[in-house]
Each structure stands twice: as C-alpha cells, then as structure tokens.
Amino acid sequence: MHLLVDTPAPCWRHTGVAQRLVEKLLHALGDPPVRLQLWNGQSVTTSRAPSLLTLRIANRSTLWRLIADPDMQFGEAYTDGRIEVVAGDLAQGLAATFRHAATNAAAPGLQARWARARALMRRNTLRGSRRNIHAHYDLGNEFYRLWLDPTMSYTCAYFESESMTLMEAQVAKMDHVCRKLRLRAGEEVIEAGCGWGGLALHMAAKYGARVRAFNISAEQIAYARAAARAAGLTAMVEFIQDDYRNISGSADAFASIGMLEHVGIGNYTRLGRIIRRSLRAGGRALVHTVARDAPEPLNRWMERYIFPGACPPSLAQMMKVFEPAGLSVLDAENLRLHYARTAGCWLAAFENSRDQVARMFDERFVRMWRMYLAGTQAAFLSGDLQLFQVLVAPGRSNEVPLTRGHIYSAGPD
Amino acid sequence: MHLLVDTPAPCWRHTGVAQRLVEKLLHALGDPPVRLQLWNGQSVTTSRAPSLLTLRIANRSTLWRLIADPDMQFGEAYTDGRIEVVAGDLAQGLAATFRHAATNAAAPGLQARWARARALMRRNTLRGSRRNIHAHYDLGNEFYRLWLDPTMSYTCAYFESESMTLMEAQVAKMDHVCRKLRLRAGEEVIEAGCGWGGLALHMAAKYGARVRAFNISAEQIAYARAAARAAGLTAMVEFIQDDYRNISGSADAFASIGMLEHVGIGNYTRLGRIIRRSLRAGGRALVHTVARDAPEPLNRWMERYIFPGACPPSLAQMMKVFEPAGLSVLDAENLRLHYARTAGCWLAAFENSRDQVARMFDERFVRMWRMYLAGTQAAFLSGDLQLFQVLVAPGRSNEVPLTRGHIYSAGPD
C-alpha cells in the first residue's frame, strides 16, 4: 500500500481511526487517483499518481455509511451534499475509480465483499413498467429540453466523425439505424419505446417510411404528437401510448432504441416473440440497449433513484430475446465510447442550465442528476457499461445484405 | 396433406405400406419439394410444388432405417449408394428440405420425435482433439488441393463483391479479418488453429505482422512450413505444431478462424482465459466460427463421419468464451450466405476432380464427401447454420476504433 497522508489537522488522535478506515476504503477500491478530505481538513490518498478528484466528506457518519455500502451511499451522500467535489472532475475521477476497482486485485477483504454484493442478482423490481417509466421520463419535457439536443434524443449518439456536435451525432445515429435496417420508402416500421419521437419522425421525413411508435410515457407521447403535427407527418407517423406487450400487426422493420434496459430479463423471451410475429417476410429488427460485458445488476443507487426497474443485460442475456424466437443475429456493434461522449455532452449542457434546474426542482435534485450523468459518463469510459446495437432477421430469411458496406456508403441506401 | 402419387408399378399391394410410410416421412419433413422413388419405380411426393430433387431409395431396409433415424441414415445410405439422385440438385433439394422441416408445423408426431432427438445435447465426444483433427484434416494435402482454392483456405470466404472468384474472396476474407483487427506493421499475432497457414502468411506479407501460428494437424503444419520457406517468410511466421491450450506469451492480436467448432463448449471458458492472457494492452482478438441461431448439436451423421467432436455454438454459447474472461465484444458479423457460396464453390471443384478423388480413395468416399459438401451448402442456405466473426478487446481497453468505417475503406488501414 502506498500511503501518503497530509496531516494539517491538530486533532490527530480523534481522526486516527477515521484516517485508517479511509485508507482501507481507498485500498479496497484499488488505490484510485482520488483524494478524500475529512471533516477536519485532513486529506488522504493511497495512490502515488496525481489525484484526478478530491472529495470532501462532511462528517463521521457519512464515512461509516460509505464504508458499509459504497455503491448506494456514495450517490446518496453526494445528493445530500455530505460529499462534495473540492477539486478535479467528478466523471473522470469516477471513471478512474471504476477502472481501478475492477483491475486491481488488492485488499480482497472489503473489495470482494462489495463485489459479491454487487454481483448478487437482485430480483427485478418492475412493479409495473408504467410506474417505473413515469418516475424518470415524465419529469417534464421542459426539464429534458434544457440539456438534450434539439432532436430530444435520450439515447447514445453516433459520432460518425470527431467534429460532430451532439445534434449531428444524434441524427447520424438515426441514419446509422436506418441504414442497418436498409429502410426503404413505403416500408412500414414498428418502434417499441419511441422516446420523444425523433427517430420515428426521421424515418418518415428522410426515408419515406410509415411508422407506428409505442411508448408508455404520457409526457413523451404528447410531445411526439405535437412534433408530428408541426412537421406535417401525422399521416406517416402514429404515436401510440401503449406497452410493447400490446403491439399488434406486422411491419417490414422493427426498431427499439433504449427500451430493453427497462424490459427486465424475465420478459425477454416474450419481447422476442413479439418482434418475430411483427416481422413480415424479409423483415429486419434492430435493438439498441445499454449493456454489460458480463451479467451484473445496475448500480443500486442508480436503480433506486434514477432508473427504477432497469437492468442492462450482457450479450448472452440479450440472446434470450432472439434465440428462442428463431431470430438470427446479422450484426452486433458496441458503441460504448460514443455513449461516454454523449453523456459528457449532456452533463456539460446540464451544468449550463443548473440554475434553471434548481428553480424547477431544488439543489438536491441538481446534485442527484449531476451524480447520475457523471456516473453514466464514467461507467461508459471505464468499460463498466456497454452499448449494443443488434440487428436481426427471421432465421430462414435470405433477404439479408451480403455485406455491411451499405452502412458506410454516403447517404441513405 | 397434399398427396400426389404416381403409380406406374404393377405390384401396388406389395408397396402399399412402403408408399404410406414415404408419405408420412415427407409429411413429417414439412412436405418439401422432393420426390422419392421406390425400388419398384413407384414415385411419391407430398408437395404440389415442382420437385427440386428426385431420390431413388434402393430397397425396403433403407426406407425403414431412414424412417427410424433420418439424420444419421440419410448420409449413410447416400454414402453406400442405397440412396441416389435421379434428378435435380442435391444441395438445393436438401436446403429446401431443411427449410420446410423447420418452418412447417405439420405432423407433430414423427417430426417432434426427431426434433427432440436432434435437440438432445449429446455429450461432446472429444476423445482427444488430436485424434478428431487427424481424422479430417490429415486426409492428405493432395486431396484438399484438388478442390480448395490456391490459398488452401478451408473456412468461409468473404465475397466482398458479387464478381469475386473463390480465391479472391478468400483473400478478401483475410483482409476483412486484418482490418477488423486493425493490424499494423511490426505487431505480433497469435493464431490458434491456422490450417494450411494462408492467413498467417498473408498477415506477414501484406501487413508486416509477426505471427506465431498453432495447429495440431501434422499434415497442415508441414505444408504451412514449406509455404513459409517458399515465400521467404520464415523470419516473420512461426508454425507451431501444438494445441491451443499450450499457447504461451503475448501478442497485439489474437486470431482464430474455424477452430472454435472443434473446441467443445466445455472448453470455452479456458479458451477465453488463454485469449485474455495473450493480449497486451490495446490488444484485439477475432474468433470466426460456424454457429447456430439457437443451441443444437451438429447433425449426427456429420459429427460421426466428417467432423468428430465438433459442435457449432449459438451466440449465447459463444459468450462463454468472452464473458467470464472479461473480454468485451466490439463487433459481431454473420456471414452465413458467404459460406453457402463458399461451399458451393468447393462442391463444384470437387465434382470436377471426382475421378481423381475416386482413385485416391474410392467411390464410397466420393459419395460421402459430396453429401458433406452439399449438406453444408444446404445448411447455410436454409439458415440451419450460421457463420460468426466476433471481434473482442479487454473490457477496460479504450484503444478501440470509434467506428467500423476503416473496415470498409479501400486498402489496409
């Protein structure tokens, strides 16, 4: 253990125990380049690398709680203001911590206990998708408008070139999806989980497709319908406030962008049957989701305060959607680093609007949401989270492109 | 059941039972566009579509055995000459039969019994990989030279454009793999299961990579070493006659083309650990394998006579290689129809050399091998088999390309 302790404080005796616990905590986390400052000004790090982040812990009880259950308590303490950033960047510091915690094998005691606790598959608490979706997506369109791009896309963008703005990258993502689906004019699309409707409207306006788009968020559906009217696309796009489990009819293409995280692994086989029965001969489907390299539940704080009922699947878990349904995977792409950049853009825009957010909600909400966005950026940067786009077709269909060259040629194919 | 029976034979009474059994058999197979001709000339089909294939069954006992266990007995009877093609194309007829058997829900009795038998996961009979590999790959380089392309590539080609010859498509496959791996001059590669050495030599000659290539087939290694000497590449490429389980050292890239089929699912986690520990920081690995849309063992005749110990995994099963090892999937591509075309090229070249093959072996071998190649083409055409290329990197590595555009730009990147 490389132990570097500044001891500016006079009351050494009283903080001796606390200091040693902080050392243990940092060591168990793999000695990340992070410095923790105690309530008495004493500051501790166990890394010889320059600190990317210095955090101030307000009091003794916050430290106890952090040691007992860091996954949950870090987010709670930050939200309460009991942990504050003194110096450095929250997202970069978290990313380094996530990376250290997973690669360093030091201090098996505490770390292993936390790892076991993290790995313990919690029962998916979907006490009604409506309630879960309402909690996050119905916070108000005005709030989301403050920090999302003008297309109101709330999923991973695709930075096809380095110089793209977030909005350009969100449009590029829509085109990336449409090219993978080989969407053609006059074709019909079913979209499951359509957010504020950006992709459905893009498919109609740019590709001439007719779209039936489903979503159970009342706020989002209202916004999407207004957007369709404003764009004169109501004849092409129908926004339906209903659950994916109630999708009927058939289509040439099926798209689901950022819904699978909320479906719950126990419902994957059912979703697969719905996709399969929705596809006509020659049909294609694309599922875009936050995911993992290996099965692990969502961070508990995130699941409790931000995305109730959500769980990012591993690729093997995702196959429960496709394999029993007789759907053949044509193409899978990991866009992890695109999501890190997307979340970074959201965080920057959020900080620019923090005063407005504080007026809409309160300071506690500002801190909670900053923690969520910075944690998200960090998780994608560190490799804790992945983003998969998986393209499938009915297993017997030979109406599939021979190569993926069309995805990378200019313009819609 | 659509029943269309020609009855040119006089002895109707004696064949009444046989005829009804043939009808049952065809119906259980989903009424494929196939006509079966009995030993007395009587011919039966249960499809209204024009027959793609007419097969003559030599005698009563062949029919009984076919009904009892079609997966195994069809190949055996064809090899023995007890089933012969009277008209039509074997591969196309088999592809139609595979497609019908899987999509038509008719006649649950026999079909369900066979499906259960097929689905019953047999214990992988790898009684020593050396023995299994020897049985197929050590049949003699002279034999394989008769019908493989000049690069001696015995895996799925990549027909980047429609007009490519098989050899051009095999070279395109090598470039496709090298571009996915972003192979650069001076980098080191480990190849697990290198066949006759074509990819290893290509990586050295075209990309300036240094390759250590492993294979347990004595005949293939001898051929590959001679090819390296002839190309003046012995300083760049080392061919090692050893099992993948004995790979040591590290590299920038790891490639395994057409080996996973022979590894056995029970060894996947071990293979994943070997790939992970072989990769340096910033390393990439590509695994290319025959696969399935859902778990199912290899056809029993194929496993017994052609590829002992082999099993094509589903994508979820493949993830047993990557998920426990901390490897992150960057890209997965399905090249199924490319394999159908590759096998078609092999079959055509094999037919052109059938007299030489008969002199090397015998007529029975010619029929067995034709059955294997036609059955392979049919399985990829019908969707019974898939071909996946999966690109991975260590889960924490951010040295990964943001997009796949480089794969589709001209020339090595």
Looking at this protein, list some descriptive labels.
Rossmann fold; five-stranded mixed β-sheet; Nonspecific Lipid-transfer Protein, Chain A; homodimer; 17 helices; 413 residues; seven-stranded mixed β-sheet; disordered N terminus
| Estimated structural class of chain A | alpha/beta
Largest sheet: number of strands, sense, barrel closure of chain A: 7 strands, mixed
CATH topology value of the largest domain in chain A: Rossmann fold
User: Taking Cα atoms only, what radius of gyration of chain A do you get, to the nearest Å?
Assistant: 23 Å
Which architecture of the largest domain in chain A does the CATH hierarchy give at level 2?
A: 3-Layer(aba) Sandwich
Secondary-structure map:
Two copies of one chain form a homodimer.
Chain A: E1 4-6, H1 12-28, E2 34-37, E3 43-45, E4 53-57, H2 60-68, H3 70-80, E5 83-88, H4 90-103, H5 108-119, H6 129-137, H7 141-147, H8 166-180, E6 188-192, H9 198-207, E7 210-215, H10 218-230, E8 237-241, E9 251-257, H11 260-263, H12 268-278, E10 279-291, H13 300-305, H14 315-322, E11 327-334, H15 336-352, H16 354-360, H17 363-382, E12 386-394
Parallel strand pairs in A: 2-4, 6-7, 6-9, 7-8, 9-10
Antiparallel strand pairs in A: 1-3, 2-3, 4-5, 10-12, 11-12
